[in-house]
Amino acid sequence: MLERRVQLLIIGGGPAGYAAAARGRQLGLDTILVERDTLGGTCLNRGCIPTKTLLESAGLFQQIKKAQEFGLSINEVDVQYDRIVERKDRIVSSLVKGLQHTMEHSGVEVVPGEAVFVGSNQVRVDGPSATTIQAEKIITATGTTPAHLPHCRPNGENIFDSDSILRMTHLPSSLVIVGGGVIGCEFASIFQALGVSVTIVELLDGLLPGEDGDLRKTLLREFKKQKIKVLTEARLNAVAEEQGSLKFSIEQKGKEKELEAAACLIAIGRRPVVPDGLDVDKDEAGYIVVSENYETSQASVYAAGDLIGGLQLAHLAFFEGINAVNAAFGAESRRSWHVPRCVYTHPETAAVGLTEEQARQQYEDVQIGTFSLKGNGKAMILGDNAGFCKVIAEPDGRVLGFHMVGPHATEMIAEAVVALEQKLSLAEWSQCIHPHPTVNESIQESLWSALGVPLHG
Question: Which residues are known to be catalytic?
Answer without folding.
Answer: 436
